[in-house]
Amino acid sequence: MVLGILTSIAACPAIIGTTEAVRSGQKQNAREKHRSRKANLSVSCSDPSRKARDIHGGTVVLRDNKLYVTTVNPKSKFPEDFTNNADRIKQWGHLFAGYFFPYPESKWGRRGEGYVSTIADDPPQLNWIYVDKDTYEVKYGLRKDTEGHIVGPWNVTPIDRRLTFDGWEGFTVVEEGEGVWALYFDVDDDGLEEKIPADQRIMEVELSRKEIRMMKGDPIM
């Protein structure tokens, strides 16, 4: 009897350790569920220039195989008087709705995954999000379009879940026309020195995933 009690006591740490490991794994799985949920991308910009007010609080849209940032200033000269309004967004481009997805043959491990977004609602279509190796523009396309370019890994910061690419936050916007802001990634961390003209305006931004509201009848993933 005494031996049985001693054996049970000795086994307790192992049992507790196994239980905690299972609980930890369950919590980790719950935390990671967000990765498979569609989310919009909202934009934060702390640049000291007045131009930052036009895009701070904007959102990311897709058009002509590139990603752009909407303006929130109703007086800005964006094409078709484009402002942060759902109807106007649909008129100008497609609202980014993306999630993480394994990129074929990638070997990034825990560093991240590929990233996809819808590019149309009807019929529903998905494209890969990638960074052009030559221009550093953030683009979208089919698998064949991404070949030879920088496709990942995409991930999020551990607390605020801001978007990261290749392990860090190097997202910038470049003003390609009056009030037209295209999304870039500063791969070389030099302010896109050799990618855009010196007189072209550039600002650093942060991208945060904003989970799309679930509607009645949506599957719980």
From TrEMBL:
Residues 1-21 form the signal peptide. Residues 23-50 are annotated as: Disordered. Keywords: Signal. It comes from the Eukaryota. The keyword Signal applies. This is Uncharacterized protein.
